[in-house]
Each structure stands twice: as structure tokens, then as C-alpha cells.
Specification:
flat; Histidine-containing Protein, Chain: A; 3 domains; alpha+beta; about 300 residues; about 35% helix; 7-stranded antiparallel β-sheet
Length: about 300
């Protein structure tokens, strides 16, 4: 988000950004002429639902310490180099890809194959509106696919947190979690989960943040087959209820293409996350504890 602001704001360090459930609040100082473009840029970022601009605008930088110095926005990036394309660009690119595919059939095979491959990539890029690194997973780090879900539980946070924070219980709460082993210091954990077609997938994760009773953040260590990162937030609501929110970003083999193949074979992570949250809600509200449950067959 700050990178996007830096394209339209001369002094992005003078702007504070707060994000909560897709709602973005902007405070700080900026020049009056930059306000409208900056708001539009933030609103266009995927996942942003609303933008509340509470910043202070100034006609010029005179007398405003945070707006001093040369600085300078980097300017807009050409459409086809942006992460998200406009509907017009997607349509025209898809049309061009279809034409190239059609014309490549008239060429000798050694020349036609590369053109067909290129047109297929362009068509996929236009259809999904995802950058190539997220489509293929190459260079996407832990972020090729974003998944998030939330659920309200009719129980106070102190009754919900013990189930969320003790990974050893997950094998009894979540059918696809086969095994979890935590290190002596509790910061690292070794997981075995059921992947597509039930094939076990193993990975090692490390906690990057833990606020007791409120939040856990984690990421996989380097070199894992499926790199991912995530956060789990628990917030109190009125009348003794709790809100659980999970955000995941992961990079499957072959990126978004691999994700689509996994969904095709019945291993949709978003659907499984939803099922796990519903199962947790049912256990908590029924007053049952998975602690005494025997191991699964």
C-alpha cells in the first residue's frame, strides 16, 4: 500500500495507514493536489473495501515539517506493468492472445509453438488478472494466493483462545491436520497435513508474533514445498461473543495454476478453512473439549 502511495504522493512517509478488515484509514499530511489521486490509488488495491481519508491537506509545504525536502512521486506505472489490469486492458490483451494463437497455426511448428505458449500465458494473465509471478509461483515468495475468512462464536474469548493457541488440538479439530509437533521453545512447529488426493504434505513453521488472547502470526521457514504466511485474530464482541478472523497467503507449486488444479481435485484451501471454522464454532458452542478425544483412525 505504501508502495502504491509512493507513486502519487511526494512525501509518503508523512502519511499513516491503518487497515482493518479491508477498511483503510489514512491520516497525516499531504499536498492538496495529491489527495484525490492518492485516494483513488488506494481504493484500487485488491482487498480494499473503503477508504477513509482523515489526513490534513495543505496548499503547499510551507510551515509543514513533514512535507519538507525534495521527495517526489514516482508517477503512474504503465498499465501492462501494473499488478492489476483494467477491464479494457484485459479484454484487449485476451483478444490479442486469441489472434496470435490463431495466426500461429499457419506458421511452421518450430515457430508456432513459442507463439502459442506466449499467447496462452497472456490469455491466462488477462483472464485471472494476476501478475505472472503469482500465476506461476516463481518469485512470488509466500504470496501467490490470498485466503481469508471469519466467523462469530457464541462464547467469550477466554473460552475460545485455548483451542486456537494449542496446535496439538488441531488434529482433533481439523480432519486434514495429520500431525503437529512443537519445538521445546514453542516457537517452531512441524506439521503434516493431507494435500490433494490425501497425499501428506509436511512443512515447518515459525511464530512471528503472539499476543496472548488476541493474535498469532506465523510463516513457513525457507525451503518449504508450499510456502505460506498467516495471521489469526480473536476479538471480543458484544453479549459475550467472539470473532475469529484468519488470513492466509500461500504459494502452491505452480502458483495460481497449481491452486486451480488443487481445487479441481477437491483440495480447495478456502473451502477447507471455512469448514474448519464452522467445526471449531460447533465444538466451542456445544461446550465440548477435544482434549479428551482419542486419536483419529
Amino acid at each position: 500500500m505504501r508502495a502504491e502511495l509512493g507513486r502519487y504522493v511526494r512525501h509518503p512517509h508523512a502519511v499513516e495507514v491503518r487497515v482493518e478488515s479491508g477498511r483503510v484509514t489514512l491520516t497525516g499530511d499531504l499536498l492538496e493536489k495529491e489527495s484525490r489521486r492518492a485516494c483513488r490509488a488506494v481504493a484500487s488495491i485488491p482487498g480494499v473495501k473503503t477508504v477513509n481519508a482523515n489526513w490534513t491537506t495543505h496548499r503547499d509545504a510551507t510551515g509543514v515539517p513533514r512535507l519538507q525536502g525534495e521527495g517526489g512521486p514516482r508517477g503512474p506505472v504503465p498499465e501492462l506493468l501494473q499488478q492489476r489490469w483494467s477491464p479494457t486492458s484485459r479484454f484487449l490483451t485476451g483478444l490479442a492472445a486469441a489472434l496470435v494463437w490463431s495466426l500461429s497455426g499457419r506458421l511452421p511448428r518450430p515457430l508456432g509453438y513459442p507463439l502459442r505458449a506466449g499467447s496462452a500465458v497472456l490469455a491466462l494473465r488477462a483472464a485471472t488478472n494476476l501478475p505472472l509471478r503469482r500465476l506461476t509461483g516463481i518469485g512470488a515468495g509466500r504470496r501467490a494466493i490470498d485466503i481469508q475468512d471469519a466467523i462469530t462464536v457464541n462464547a467469550p474469548p477466554q473460552d475460545v483462545w485455548p483451542l486456537l493457541s494449542d496446535y496439538s488440538l488441531f488434529t482433533r479439530l481439523m480432519p486434514d491436520v495429520l500431525e503437529v509437533r512443537r519445538s521445546a521453545d514453542g516457537l517452531r512447529s512441524h506439521w503434516s497435513v493431507a494435500g490433494p488426493a490425501g497425499v501428506p504434505i509436511r512443512f515447518e513453521a515459525v511464530e512471528t508474533m503472539r499476543e496472548e488472547g488476541r493474535r498469532i502470526a506465523w510463516k513457513t521457514v525457507e525451503g518449504q514445498l508450499i510456502a505460506h504466511t498467516g495471521t489469526l485474530d480473536l476479538t471480543p464482541e458484544n453479549t459475550g461473543r467472539s470473532r475469529i478472523r484468519v488470513q492466509l497467503t500461500y504459494n502452491p507449486v505452480f502458483g495460481a495454476v497449481g491452486h486451480a488444479m488443487a481445487v479441481l481435485f477437491g483440495a480447495d484451501p478456502a473451502h477447507k478453512l471455512q469448514e474448519d471454522l464452522l467445526r471449531l464454532k460447533s465444538v466451542v458452542e456445544a461446550g465440548k473439549s477435544p482434549v479428551g478425544a482419542g486419536p483419529r483412525a
